[in-house]
């Protein structure tokens, strides 16, 4: 849909491969970190494999890719914007989401530290924090009508988010229309956190 965009397919947990691929892909002015996994397990059943994979993708990959891109932005002396896709789960405990909620909370704080340290270089960093989004992952984890009904009943707007709801929020945070916004979390949750 977007001519000129060249996807890179790689395992973000592999830091060497990521460094080589992303480092060669610049220059950058904008970055959206959207890779995530949601391995749902009750707290007492969380496995080391699920924990490591979630930390590698939901937190470590964002940190590493952002380092690579921000270093390039600074070296070029250009202002930039980074948007990290977090979740309402960073702010509210959800059953069977111990690892997911924790990695998204860590991502929110990482984004604030990035905003503080990269701000002097004219690089803004924000998060969007959506509710359940009707992506393939969202459909897999929320296809059970009983589970989804309980969540939807807590959302004042009465529905899950569509991809465009999140994309439009990201576009705002990447644009000059949010030129004085950094270190912020934009909730795209239909009011979930106020209910």
Automatic annotation (TrEMBL):
<dbReference type="InterPro" id="IPR002347">
    <property type="entry name" value="SDR_fam"/>
</dbReference>
<comment type="subunit">
    <text>Homotetramer.</text>
</comment>
<dbReference type="Pfam" id="PF13561">
    <property type="entry name" value="adh_short_C2"/>
</dbReference>
<protein>
    <submittedName>
        <fullName>DER reductase</fullName>
    </submittedName>
</protein>
<keyword id="KW-0560">Oxidoreductase</keyword>
<keyword id="KW-0521">NADP</keyword>
<dbReference type="GO" id="GO:0006006">
    <property type="term" value="P:glucose metabolic process"/>
</dbReference>
<dbReference type="InterPro" id="IPR020904">
    <property type="entry name" value="Sc_DH/Rdtase_CS"/>
</dbReference>
<comment type="similarity">
    <text>Belongs to the short-chain dehydrogenases/reductases (SDR) family.</text>
</comment>
<dbReference type="InterPro" id="IPR051737">
    <property type="entry name" value="L-xylulose/Carbonyl_redctase"/>
</dbReference>
<dbReference type="GO" id="GO:0004090">
    <property type="term" value="F:carbonyl reductase (NADPH) activity"/>
</dbReference>
<dbReference type="GO" id="GO:0005997">
    <property type="term" value="P:xylulose metabolic process"/>
</dbReference>
<dbReference type="InterPro" id="IPR036291">
    <property type="entry name" value="NAD(P)-bd_dom_sf"/>
</dbReference>
<dbReference type="GO" id="GO:0050038">
    <property type="term" value="F:L-xylulose reductase (NADPH) activity"/>
</dbReference>
